[in-house]
Design brief:
The chain is of the alpha+beta class. The protein has helices at 64-72, 154-157, 161-165, 171-179, 216-223, 229-240, 251-262, 272-286, 299-302; strands at residues 51-53, 79-85, 92-95, 98-103, 106-113, 117-120, 129-132, 137-138, 143-144, 207-208. It is globular, with a radius of gyration of 19 Å. Bound molecules: iron/sulfur cluster. Iron/sulfur cluster is lined by residues 12, 60, 113, 134, 136-137, 144, 146, 153, 156.
Length: 315
Amino acid sequence: MEVNCRGCAGCCLDWRPLLEVGKEEPDDRRCARSSSRDDDGGNERAFSDRVPLGGSYNFVALARDEVRTVLERGSAAALTPRFWTVEDEREGVEIGDRHVAAVAGRPVFFVGLRKPPKPVAPFGREGPTWLPTCVFLDPTTLQCRVHGSDRFPDECGTYPEQTLALGAETECERVEARFGGDRLLERNHDDPDGLLFGPQALGAKLFCHPRPDELEGLLDRLERGEPSPTDRAKCIAVAAASSPGTVAVSEPHYERALERLEGDESGADDAWIGAAIGEWHRRRDRTRADEAVPDPELAAEIEDRRGAPETPGWE
Ligand code: SF4
């Protein structure tokens, strides 16, 4: 599908903070933390009518085999879970004071990519803004660092076709409506082939947590946007140990995945990820309200120098 992505990356970052300042110019120094409640969640790739708990806007969810590949590459620091709360208690299980979406009494969740704050200037904006940005997006070129690699999510490769096939608005169209330009160069696509819906999503992309009793603290931290490395590791291990089409989780696979996640990944190809995410948060938190947002080229120091894959640039 033909799209014009140069200078955009609208589907790889959360640009809603640029709109949240009413009629005034956006305040480039703020960066909305990932909302635990996406008011316009209907525009998200998940098209869920549940209320997301954790994760980020436009959450890129990975399939089980993609989670396993990420684990093998030592890239698990890029991942985080997303659960949902439900209004109708018949659709969920009670955990603390929430009802969490569940199947067969087991809370369900996605595992997908984190969006740390990065200084970015999409859509031809002159100055950078701190925005929640995909861990794999190079803020300087606004290109994906893992495009064409085995870590490139299928969900990114099929965007926006599958959104069009579902008859929903794409991020490309939303960017066009707000900032002008032509992003979506083809508009007809009605083949939803490959979408994981219904029972076949279970254990393949929608994972079932086998131990709801252990989740209350984790869900509290997720809602605050502060899941611990252990919280993330336990959910990633459940995803890696899931069986497509079932709610089953293999305990030996779970233990092996957890062991790997808790091991030393400093020699892995993608060891840059965890350190870079931590550094982006520190830099954003240290930027005072009266200070300019740093140039996106700061990524050379924070990501490239730590070993992040380069992007080809647009020339
Ligand atoms: S993996 Fe690449 S294409 Fe997908 S959201 Fe992240 S930066 Fe964008």
